[in-house]
Specification:
The chain is mainly beta. It contains seven helices and 31 strands. The longest helix has 13 residues. It starts with a strand and ends in a 24-residue tail after the last strand.
């Protein structure tokens, strides 16, 4: 479909990867409206930058013309029909239009507006009211938590736009509903019909009574007074510089982006090696996450949330606060997204940029030549935090002076609760009668690698013992065993900490001074991947999470590991489809998809608010440099060191 409108953007951008701005969102809405595609029942589900091909970005020179395209997902709330558009806001043109077949393609993500009236639907359901009255619960004090429905082969659900609703009791405005799950019953809501279409009432379980606010009696304790202030100061200011969305710090340079589905992304990440700008990663993002639950009961077996593909979690980004979320010399960035009517929405202080001291970088005291040198490490941090339902997640990218790149996800907030059904079940007792089901938080990083150029190869490297023999008579030998990944079929790998398994990404066209191919190594944490049975619905729908690593050749259209449309998708979208033709992945432009995350058996100490838990991965140079690249870091000044007494 091509529709040309006279509308063009009123402001210009200076780079193809500049962040989305309000004028571009306004233009996209106007183009679609003028084409007759926006009605009273139309909602804007997603508006994001359709990034140009990599060759376009590489060839761009400052001042050259830039075409900007946006991807827009629209939902007709009266029918549940979703449509996918590509709009050129530079020329006012609708480039493509694709309508979704909900039964095969899945649905567009769930809107906030679709959640707003859920409780009124439930109050109009005789079956739901009967379930509450049977339990002696006032329906007006019930808080509804609508959740993505998934796909489980139920014939009456094919093509329907559904959510499944669990309920929590709230005595008063200050009461924490998560402390009072009304377990054993679930409602199914058709979002198009705007009605409860089914209630499953499995069992009448006692509603936990103890209040759950973090400062509620009788467990509240006075705020301690023995912790002295810690001040983080940089009297000469920060070491980084920012021009638009391009950031330079020490030897690093990159651009950042923000998208409501992926959140924060890094682009064109390079390291200045003695004046030579050497690329490392073209694009890095967390492209999907899934939270599968382990409770198989009739009212909870379906609990599997894709917080990005189903909910577009970037919409819930927090406005960060100095001294609470970030310390030191801080640079905040606002981001602009589209609301559900297609108008720009500014999110203040969405991204935080700062430096952190990080202990010892390198140190040696030598007994032969008297060397006594210490250098302190620091890292650049760029991050954002969001709240989605009961959980809060922080996403942090770290750059280090020695060339290391690290990603860390921080999980906190309140665990999703249930009634506690006793020992041998699938939950931990958190408070009297209160359970927290076992679950996982699994993330997928999409790493579009560019290690010193676009010709890269991946090798799996294991630490293996050498058998006793003529070359190893004392049995002490071990070596690094390298296996080259040549095709997508052997690029689906599992981490193995027992073998210290890492994956090297090398460039066969570039060598260091020792003749070795330059490279970076992906260091996984090695925690479990998806624990659900391979035959399960979630193993099909979140197939990406069944492997620690997938390797594919670069394809601009292969953006999301679970597929473009995750909500009620029947399964095998994304990576299983990408790798089906078994393309070659040796000496080419590569994308790595890395699954990592937490397997959470909740503890009583996680209630009522969970201390931060951490997960992530590292990319470390391996032969990329000729020697330690941080030798140029100066020693700390005397005023920052304590003299010997």
């Amino acid at each position: 479909m091509t529709f040309v409108d006279s509308t063009t953007t009123r402001s210009t951008v200076n780079h193809p990867l500049s962040t989305l701005n309000a004028d571009e969102i306004d233009t996209a809405r106007t183009v679609l409206t003028n084409a007759g595609l926006v009605t009273q029942s139309t909602r804007f589900v997603y508006v994001g930058l359709d990034e140009p091909e990599k060759t376009v970005v590489h060839q761009f020179r400052s001042g050259a013309p830039i075409e900007r395209r946006l991807r827009v997902l629209l939902l007709d709330t009266s029918t549940g029909t979703g449509t996918d558009y590509i709009v050129s806001v530079t020329g006012g043109t609708i480039i493509t239009s694709t309508s979704l077949d909900a039964g095969n393609d899945g649905h567009v993500p769930i809107l906030d507006a679709e959640f707003e009236d859920i409780e009124s639907f439930m109050l109009n359901s005789d079956d739901w009211l009967a379930a509450m009255h049977k339990r002696g619960i006032d329906p007006a004090k019930v808080r509804a938590v609508p959740l993505s429905a998934g796909v489980f082969g139920h014939e009456d659900e094919v093509g329907c736009r559904l959510v499944r609703v669990l309920a929590f009791f709230q005595e008063d405005d200050a009461d924490l509903p998560w402390a009072h799950p009304i377990d054993g019953v679930v409602a199914y809501v058709d979002l198009v019909e705007r009605a409860v279409v089914k209630v499953v009432d499995e069992i009448d379980l006692p509603v936990p009574a103890e209040r759950g606010e973090w400062n509620s009696a009788p467990h509240a304790s006075p705020t301690r007074t023995d912790l002295k202030p810690i001040e983080i100061t940089q009297p000469e200011g920060a070491s980084f510089s920012v021009v638009g969305n391009e950031i330079s710090w020490a030897d690093w340079k990159f651009r950042f982006g923000f998208d409501v589905r992926e959140g924060l992304s890094l682009h064109q990440l390079s390291f200045n090696d003695a004046g030579n700008e050497r690329p490392v990663i073209y694009r890095a993002s967390i492209a999907e996450m899934v939270v599968p639950y382990a409770d198989p009961s009739p009212v909870r077996y379906w609990q599997n949330y894709f917080d990005q593909g189903e909910y577009l979690f970037g919409r819930y980004t927090n406005a960060l606060e100095l001294g609470c979320d970030c310390l030191g010399e801080i640079k905040y960035f606002d981001v602009t997204i589209a609301d559900e009517s297609g108008y720009p929405k500014l999110m203040k202080n969405a991204i935080c940029l700062h430096e952190e001291d990080y202990g010892i970088l390198w140190k040696h005291t030598d007994l032969f030549n008297g060397m006594a040198e210490t250098r302190r490490s620091r890292r650049l941090v760029i991050s954002f935090f969001l709240t989605i339902g009961n959980y809060d997640y922080g996403f942090y990218w770290y750059l280090y002076l020695d060339g290391t790149i690290e990603f860390e996800a921080k999980a906190t907030g309140i665990v999703f609760t249930s009634a506690y059904r006793g020992e041998g079940g699938y939950s931990t007792q958190m408070a009297p009668g209160l359970g927290a089901p076992f679950h996982q938080h699994l993330f997928a990083a999409r790493l579009d690698m560019e290690v010193d150029g676009q010709t890269n190869t991946v090798s799996e490297v294991d630490a293996v013992p050498v058998p006793v023999g003529p070359d190893n008579p004392w049995g002490n030998a071990f070596r690094a065993q390298k296996t080259t990944i040549t095709h997508e079929s052997n690029g689906q790998r599992l981490a193995d900490n027992a073998k210290a398994r890492v994956w090297h990404i090398t460039n066969p066209e570039k060598q260091n001074r020792l003749g070795q191919d330059v490279g970076y190594a992906l260091h996984p944490e090695g925690q479990p991947v998806l624990l659900a049975d391979p035959s399960s619905s979630i193993a099909s729908r979140a197939a990406f999470a069944t492997k620690s690593l997938w390797v594919t050749p670069y394809d601009k259209n292969e953006r999301y590991p679970a597929g473009d449309f995750v909500n009620q998708h029947p399964g095998n979208g994304g990576l299983p489809t990408f790798v089906a033709t078994n393309r070659e992945v040796e000496n080419t432009d590569l994308v790595l998809w890395h699954t990592f995350g937490l397997t959470h058996f909740p503890r009583p100490e996680d209630w009522p608010v969970m201390p931060v838990d951490y997960t992530g991965f590292k990319l470390k140079p391996v032969g990329f440099f000729d020697r330690n690249p941080s030798l140029n870091v100066p020693a700390s000044s005397a005023k920052h060191c304590c003299p010997a007494e």
